[in-house]
Structures are given as C-alpha cells and as structure tokens.
Amino acid sequence: SGLLSRLQTSAPTIRTLSSSKPFSQNIPSCLWKLGRLNHVAITVPDLEKAQSFYKDVLGAQVSETVALPEHGVYTVFVELGNTKLELLHPLGEKSPIASFLQKNKTGGMHHICIEVDDIKAAMTELKKKKIRILSEEPKIGAHGKPVIFLHPKDCHGVLVELEQA
C-alpha cells in the first residue's frame, strides 16, 4: 500500500503540470502552420559508402540514388520510421554541396527540412519578419513538392528547408 499511496499523492502534481499553459500559447498565430520534421540532410563525400553503411551495417531501408540537377545534388533517402535522412552528394562543379565538402572534408549535417501546410503564405510572412529566403520562388524538391531554403544566419546557424506538405 506504500506505493499506491505515493502514486495517489503525486497524481495531483501530474494533473497540475498537464493543465499548465500550453507552450504554443506564446506563439503568434500565422496564416500557415509548421508541420513535422521531414528529414535531416547529411552531405557525404562518398555516396556509395554512406548508402552501404546505412543499409548493410545499420539495416535501414535505403532508396536508389536520384539526380536533382536543379539543386546540383544526388540524393538518397534513408527511412527511419518517424523521419528520414537525406544523403547528399555533389552533382556538377557548381553544386552548393561541393563547396560544403571543401570546408567539411568528411561531410556532415547540411540542413533540416520541416513541412509546412502553405509554402506561399510561409514565404510572405517570413519575408515580413525579415527572414531571408534563398530563392525568389519555391523550387521542386526531392519529393516532387515545392521547397524553399531559409538563410542560416537568420535561423541560428541552421540551413532550414521548408517543404509543402
């Protein structure tokens, strides 16, 4: 009965915590809504070795390599259940990933991608909030959906990709 009485005693504390003000109360309302984390992108110097690591060593489901010339990258997606990893490798000499690899020889985290329900509304509102967007219009991303990238200096050092859900 000692454990039961302790649980009964702590129950009001749990109820008090769960009935406190929701975190989102401090967030101003928007015309668009932030969704789930779609993927974390990792730049890799050797795409085949990286694919093999996630598939053969960790046992993950790994996609085929897809070339995205408009973005200057090859992409491979690693399924993780609750999200994905996107492996990036340079495609062409003008690839933005090539310059990233020059600075980070072994590769590393490149960007995070978060879904939004209305990318155009997000662009309009973010511009009003002085957040720089790296293109005038959304481009079609690896999932065949419109994407934009937010300047890392405006996002606390992180390159943020927003993707239309």
From TrEMBL:
It comes from the Eukaryota. It catalyses: (R)-methylmalonyl-CoA = (S)-methylmalonyl-CoA. One of its GO terms (cellular component) is mitochondrion. Transmembrane segments: none annotated. The keyword Isomerase applies. Pfam families: Glyoxalase_4. Residues 36-165 form the VOC domain. SUPFAM superfamilies: Glyoxalase/Bleomycin resistance protein/Dihydroxybiphenyl dioxygenase (SSF54593). It is an enzyme of class 5 (isomerase). GO terms for molecular function: metal ion binding; methylmalonyl-CoA epimerase activity. Keywords: Cobalt, Isomerase, Metal-binding. One of its GO terms (biological process) is L-methylmalonyl-CoA metabolic process. Its EC number is 5.1.99.1. Methylmalonyl-CoA epimerase involved in propionyl-CoA metabolism. Belongs to the methylmalonyl-CoA epimerase family. PANTHER family: METHYLMALONYL-COA EPIMERASE, METHYLMALONYL-COA EPIMERASE, MITOCHONDRIAL. This is Methylmalonyl-CoA epimerase, mitochondrial. It comes from Edolisoma coerulescens. The gene is Mcee.
